[in-house]
Amino acid sequence: MAGAAPRIFVSHLAGMAVFDPNGDLVGRVRDLVAMLRMGRRPPRVLGLVVELPNRRRIFLPMTRVTGIESGQVISTGVLNVRRFEQRPTERLVLGELLDRRLRLLDTDEEVTVLDVSVTQLPARREWEIDRVFVRKGAVGPRGRVSLPWKGGGGRRSGETLTVEWSALTGFSLEEVGQGAENLLATFEQLRPADLANVLHHLSAKRRAEVATALDDDRLADVLEELPEDDQVEIIGELKDERAADVLEAMDPDDAADLLGELPESDKERLLTLMQPSDAADVRRLMAYEDRTAGGLMTTEPIVLRPDATVADALARVRNADLSPALAAQVYVCRPPDETPTGKYLGTVHFQRLLRDPPYTLVGSMLDDDLLPLSPDARLPEVAGFFAAYDMVAAPVVDDGGSLLGAVTVDDVLDHLLPDDWRETEYQLSDEVNVEPRTGAADSGQGVVRGG
Q1: What's the Cα-to-Cα distance from 74 to each of 27, 436, 438, rounded to whole Å?
Q2: pLDDT of res. 170
Q3: Parallel, antiparallel, or unpaired: how do β-strands 65-69 and 72-75 relate?
Q4: CA 442, 443, 444: angle at the middle one, nearest 5?
Q5: Which of the chain's ends, N or C, has fewer CB atoms near its CB within 10 Å?
Q6: What is the pLDDT of residue 209?
């Protein structure tokens, strides 16, 4: 990193891949750790919070960063793989500094932090925050902004400018009602499961702020990926009407699981606020025992009448809102088409749809050899069904022959894995380098250097 290092905006670093000197992927950047300093000296950047492939978050000191260029971070390959724990004197740049409302010292105008930049000090391996990109006035709760590395400017009214760290006051104060829009902008491309992991590692206060700033559909997707404790905490922070809207946007089986964790009075109040049709689906699912096919199923599979064509089926499968598992097959039933349906006739798998002409009737190509699941089938029976027949989804049919819903493989896995599976840290390979965070890399104790 010879010569003057370029200025790097931290929103550009979010999600950036981290590699070792051999070009092997170490993980991805999830945040930066900084330490505020006395007076108006810019904060020192201590290191990066890196998420390993096994989802553990570790601390990578900036002294172990040899380059940040071409959309990637290069490390020395010596890592402390103990879980990152934030210390009282440390601040998470993305999690705590973005969206703060501060004041310009010269004019006392209120500004909102949209981004900050970091730079490496000349001839040293030390990094610091040197500039702050702000917008005059407070950014509203649903405002969208253009970050400087995405072209600057922004879409909302209010002048944007980049100032020295020392030109602002208020970073050291406890933030009340900190926004979340710019933090979300840095993670806008994350899958729901990855954004859920980001939220899980934020403080309870920051988690609530970010959840409030998400739109209903995005929050619903993220809630479905969070541990139950986080789900209950977040839904409890929302106003009742908003909570009901989010529950409506969730898959009925996930909404039923979440409501099942709430006190009876809260559960009934939210169900009453939901749309009657959505509430009815959820109530029906909550009537089944946990860890049965009825309790695991979703009530919204693709249902077609036997006189529908392959073209009709493929049009339904193309729905981007469907999970891959639910889009893998369609269920052919007599009317009515909504669950519980008329008589269940059979299943048509996606691969079969691709092999037949568009005008072919789905009623002529049924796979009716496999018996559907009973809603009372216990989890081991359901799991055995999936394993024996290599299925990704299976129909659930009652004694009267009506299709009630479908169980997908992800529903089964969620209940087979331990409750804390999202925190599971899988065995690291022998090639991972380990070093204590406190230093002493050459002490020989607990240090492994890969070849």
Answers
A1: 11, 19, 21
A2: 84
A3: antiparallel
A4: 90
A5: C
A6: 86
HEC secondary structure over 380-421: HHHHHHHHHHCCCEEEEECCCCEEEEEEEHHHHHHHHCCCCH
Q: Which tokens hold the place of 108?
A: 């006392």
> What pLDDT was estimated at residue 311?
96
Q: Cα separation of 296 and 260, whole Å?
A: 13
For the chain, residues with pLDDT lower than 70 are 1-5, 123-124, 138-157, 172-177, 420-451
**Which residue's structure tokens are 């609530």?**
208
Contact 383, 335 (CB under 8 A): no
What the block records as the tokens of 305 is 């009448």
The token duo for 451 is 């070849």
C-alpha span between 124 and 122 (Å, rounded): 5
pLDDT of residue 425: 52
For position 424, what pLDDT does the model report?
Answer: 59
446 CB contacts (<8 Å, ≥6 apart)? 434, 435, 436
CA distance 200 to 47: 20
Tell me the pairing of strands 72-75 and 17-19.
parallel
Q: Which amino acid is at 379?
A: L
Q: Are 216 and 142 in contact (CB under 8 A)?
A: no
Residues 386-423: b if buried by 16+ CB within 10 A, e if exposed: beeeebbbbbbbeeeebbbbbbbbebbebeeeeeeebe
Question: Residue 307, exposed/middle/buried by CB under 10 A (0-12, 13-18, 19+)?
Answer: exposed
**What does 95-145 look like in DSSP terms, one character per residue?**
IIITT-EEEETTT--EEEEEEEEEEEPTTSS-EEEEEEEEEESPPPTT---
Question: CB-hemisphere CA count at 13 Å for 328?
Answer: 14
Tokens of 391: 């299925």
Q: Residue 91 CB: number of other CB atoms within 10 A?
A: 20
3-state secondary structure of 344: strand
SS3 label, residue 136: strand
pLDDT value of residue 142: 43
What is d(CA 14, CA 19) in angstroms, rounded to the nearest whole number?
15
pTM: predicted TM-score of the whole model, two decimal places: 0.68
Q: What is the pLDDT of residue 447?
A: 35
